[in-house]
Amino acid sequence: MTGSETETVEDLPPSAKLVFKVLEYNGSLTQKQIVNESMLSARTVRYALERLENIDIVEEDIYFADARQNLYTLDEQAVVADGGPDEACCAE
What we know:
Blueprint: H1 14-26, E1 29-30, H2 31-38, H3 42-54, E2 58-62, E3 70-74, H4 76-82, H5 86-89
Pfam families: HTH_24 (PF13412)
Protein name: ArsR family transcriptional regulator
């Protein structure tokens, strides 16, 4: 793991939180699909996925429909342990 081992989704930039939410709502997606859903640039999505992978929230797998692409999925156990970004943002 690179970076701070205590970093959580809450500590990430807004773009990474958006990518997290897109994956949470849509399930497994390729980078292109995340770009389309989030309306972020491909470079921003790559950076966000890298940040999410660094804190073990996102898993990268082979996309069998097109082996040139990867399929990104939320690690549900890590999300539950982390609490996700909703805990801090929704408290009133």
